[in-house]
Specification:
Blueprint lengths: L1 E9 L8 H10 L4 E9 L8 E5 L10 H15 L6 E5 L2 H13 L3 E5 L7 H9 L2 E4 L12 E3 L23 E6 L8 H13 L4 E6 L5 H16 L6 E5 L7 H5 L3 E4 L8 H8 L4 E3 L12 H4 L6 H12 L3 H18 L2 H13 L1
Helix pairs in contact: 3-4, 5-10, 8-11
Length: 355
């Protein structure tokens, strides 16, 4: 199998998209060759059977940049057309729209990975042009299509794994971590309001928010969050750590006592599974997680924007005895290892292509 892999960025140091560097590496172990076409090419360390081609976003040229991207895209898919037989497009439906008819003419099997709650016109068009739609959960692709294949998520369980308990210099402080871009859809206000309840009750917490901003409105949102935290006198409890390179994320999860997710995206955030793989209890309002948690759904999920219920769930985790906590964290990791490992995901995708 010779694969054309199209993605937004190849950069081992990226805080959000660095994970797909490891997807490519894992695919490379199982296929003859991979040609990667990306919008942005940064630092990478990939096997010899992988070649990376950039559409040029890392260049400083601002004029006619979209025209340049399109030119390079067509140049690569044409020039390399005899070197690939399958196409895998990650999330970016516009590339299916741009290249789909050509790939069909050249008899290339087209696969689209899409795992998000949103349904756009571009997605509807891409579905028509694709041969296969790969998604992580039923809620990750919300169009009715007989092309859909639920292949679950891909977590590197050899990187995201429990570590020996790291000594907490402040053993009375309960450590909470959350990871995600600083955006209103991530609903950090709910966590802030839940933490205020604990401050009023005299409980000692430490909250780390890991994630960066990419847009002007997200910068404004971050400033508003900081203002709320200051007004509630929570500056000594809640800390913004900014973006952390994906390759450096695991230790932040391994040192925490609880991972909290407040996202409203409707898709399965991989960082929730990464936390579970690290043996970390998790709390989430993400509806897609109900397909994953099995017997733990009731214990570990709360209604969206309900900070009172979130605080109750945090208190529940804080009060778990060691035996119950150990069983829970082992079960959560096993869910990821058995159903959502990166190696398993890639194997399932390749099996679907070969059908």
């Amino acid at each position: 199998m010779r694969l054309l892999f199209i993605t937004q960025k190849v950069d081992i140091n990226d805080d959000v998209l660095g994970v797909y560097h490891e997807w490519i590496r894992t695919f490379a172990e199982k296929v003859e060759s991979i040609l990667v076409v990306c919008l942005f090419k940064g630092e990478h360390d990939l096997p010899d059977n992988v070649k990376v081609f950039s559409l040029g976003k890392e260049d400083k040229l601002k004029i006619f940049k979209k025209l340049k991207y399109c030119w390079n895209f067509y140049k690569y898919i044409w020039r390399l057309r005899k070197e690939y037989d399958k196409v895998f497009v990650h999330m970016n439906t516009e590339y299916i729209i741009l290249g789909g008819l050509f790939w069909k003419l050249w008899k290339k099997k087209i696969g689209l990975w899409y795992a998000h709650g949103g349904v756009s016109l571009k997605l509807r068009i891409a579905e028509k042009l694709s041969d296969i739609i790969f998604t992580s959960t039923k809620s990750g692709f919300r169009l009715k299509s007989n092309k859909t294949r639920i292949v679950r998520q891909g977590i590197d369980v050899e990187v995201f794994k429990p570590q020996n308990q790291i000594s907490n210099p402040k053993p009375k402080i309960f450590r909470i971590v959350t990871v995600g871009r600083i955006s209103p859809v991530k609903d950090y206000e709910t966590l802030i309001n839940a933490v205020e309840i604990f401050k009023k009750e005299g409980e000692d917490l430490e909250v780390k928010i890991i994630g960066g901003v990419g847009l002007h409105e997200q910068e404004e949102y971050l400033n508003n969050l900081k203002k709320i935290i200051k007004e509630k006198k929570l500056e000594d409890i809640i800390n913004f750590f900014g973006p952390v390179p994906y390759k450096d994320l695991a230790p932040y999860l391994q040192r925490a006592d609880l991972f909290v997710n407040m996202s409203h995206t409707g898709s399965l955030d991989k960082v929730i599974l990464e936390a579970m793989a690290c043996g970390l209890p998790i709390l989430s309002c993400n509806e897609s997680l109900s397909e994953v948690l099995m017997n733990y759904q009731e214990k570990l999920m709360y209604p969206q924007r309900d900070f009172i219920k979130l605080a109750e769930k945090i208190k529940f985790i804080m009060n778990l005895d060691e035996n119950e906590k150990e069983k829970m964290t082992k079960d959560l990791r096993n869910i990821v290892v058995e159903n959502h490992s990166l190696n398993g995901l890639v194997g399932r995708i390749i099996d679907v292509y070969n059908q």
